[in-house]
Amino acid sequence: MKIAISSAGKTLDAQVDPRFGRCAYFIVVDTETMQFEAVDNANAAAGGGAGIATAQMIAGKGVEAVLSGNCGPNAYEVLSKADIKVISGVSGVIKDVVENYRNGKYEASNKPNVAGHFGQGLK
Amino acid sequence: MIISVASGKGGTGKTLVATSLALSLKDGHKVMVQDCDVEEPNDHIILKPVITDREPVFNLVPRVDEEKCTYCGTCARVCAFNAIAVINEHVLVFPQMCHGCGACSYLCPEKVITEIPKEIGVVERGEADGISFVQGVLTIGEAMAPPVIRKVKEYSNNDYTIIRDVSPGTSCPVVESIKGSDFCLLVTEPTPFGLNDLILAVETVKELGIPCGIVINRAGVGDSKVADYCVKEGIPLLLNIPLSTDIASLYSRGIPLVEGMPQWRDSFIKLEKQIKEIVSERNSNPQR
Ligand code: SF4
Ligand code: SF4
């Protein structure tokens, strides 16, 4: 099963990016084989609607869950329509996050955890 | 003449300047106040207008007939504002993000998108003691300020000296509001934050080709960097309003400065004269 984690870097040693719509990269990783792919988030600099566009892009990757620091209402709506679990409040190093996920340490959120525009203006 | 009153950051005293200017000028001029700070219009608190007219403002947002939609995804791809997402067998429209450009309905191959007017705000008109008053109010939860601002600007009239209150910052509502004015007053504080935001605001105004001048509010709290900047950039520093508990207390009680402290009236009348000179000099010498 594949999951996507918002990431500040392109490797499993990178830190989780707290933003969803405006994160730098996504690490899309197969939790069985630990094979992964780093996906550039072209929407990081979008003027508006970054969360919506990013959620659509990630939905196209066929993942079962998205893990991030924060997820706003619009992105949450798109992801839930795509039947993708949203796990927010995640931080730390990507590979530990994958490990925790495999061990069932996270619970899916049933609502967005930040208001819109959270990641805007953060560098 | 249209004078926009803007500021790089919020809370610098833009409302104080806009309302004082309007109240000081109203005896010699036909004055109109246009409050374009549609997310938080404040001038009415000081001017206390009697509103006689309300006009709703609409944005055209798409509605998809999902019975006939093939979920081809074209609408989501063409929307430059990410206001539509197509996910599995769902089309999600985010009306707050929609700019009403019509691209999605125009390009939908199945022609199953219709544009539905959605009320996003209201323009209120009235009078405040001889001042013609217009304000835009964006409905809470709506994000598209420019259509409301454009509606306010439609009431512009050459017979009036127009004082236009602009929202703080440098985003598109600010540009929309300042566009078309003859002069832009920038209200700032003499602090590092004030200066930082002021520089961005000056750049925005210059890009629009509109002359500007500075008002320093709460003069005395910070340093002289804002004044130094004005000298360096050749931007006229037109007025200093000192930090004063009397001014702050009037403001917090909703009493206009020039009524509580009438000695200020002359300063604002002089301010308008200086602005007029700058504008006419520039108009007679268009090479800027
Ligand atoms: S472009 Fe038209 S047919 Fe295609 S997904 Fe959008 S609404 Fe449906
Ligand atoms: S009208 Fe324009 S902005 Fe609104 S959803 Fe359609 S394409 Fe996007």
Ranges of chain A where pLDDT stays below 50 over 5 or more residues in a row are none
The averaged pLDDT of chain B comes out at 91
Ligand set: iron/sulfur cluster
Q: What's the order of the H and E elements of chain B?
A: EHEHEHEEHEEHEHEHEHEHHH
Radius of gyration of chain B: 22 Å
Q: What is the H level of CATH, i.e. the homologous superfamily of the largest domain in chain B?
A: P-loop containing nucleotide triphosphate hydrolases
Structural class of chain B: alpha/beta
How large a portion of the residues of chain A is in β-strands, by DSSP E?
15-25%
How would you explain this protein's 3D organization?
The complex is a heterodimer of chains A (123) and B (288). By secondary structure, chain A is α/β, with parallel strands linked by helices. Chain A has a single domain, classed as Dinitrogenase iron-molybdenum cofactor biosynthesis domain (Nucleotidyltransferase, domain 5, 2-Layer Sandwich). Chain A contains three helices and five strands. Chain A has helices spanning 50-59, 73-81, 94-102; strands at residues 2-7, 25-30, 36-40, 65-67, 85-87. In chain A, strands 3-2-1-4-5 form a five-stranded mixed β-sheet, with helices on both faces. In chain A, helix 2 (73-81) links the parallel strand 4 (65-67) and strand 5 (85-87). In chain A, helix 1 (50-59) packs parallel to helix 2 (73-81). Chain A is globular and about 35 Å long. The termini of chain A are far apart. By secondary structure, chain B is of the alpha/beta class. Chain B has two domains: 2-48 and 129-284, P-loop containing nucleotide triphosphate hydrolases (Rossmann fold); 58-119, Alpha-Beta Plaits (2-Layer Sandwich). Helices cover 35% and strands 28% of the residues of chain B. Chain B has helices at 14-25, 43-47, 74-78, 103-107, 145-153, 172-178, 192-207, 225-233, 245-252, 257-260, 265-284; strands spanning 2-6, 31-35, 50-64, 84-87, 90-93, 113-128, 131-138, 161-165, 183-188, 212-219, 237-242. A nine-stranded mixed β-sheet of chain B has the order 3-6-7-2-8-1-9-10-11, with helices on both faces. Chain B has a two-stranded antiparallel sheet with strand order 4-5. In chain B, helix 5 (145-153) runs parallel beside helix 6 (172-178). The relative contact order of chain B is 0.20. Chain A binds chain B through residues 43, 46-50, 52-53, 55-56, 59, 74, 77-78, 81-83, and chain B through 76, 81-83, 85-88, 90, 92, 94, 97, 143. One iron/sulfur cluster binds next to helix 3 of chain B.
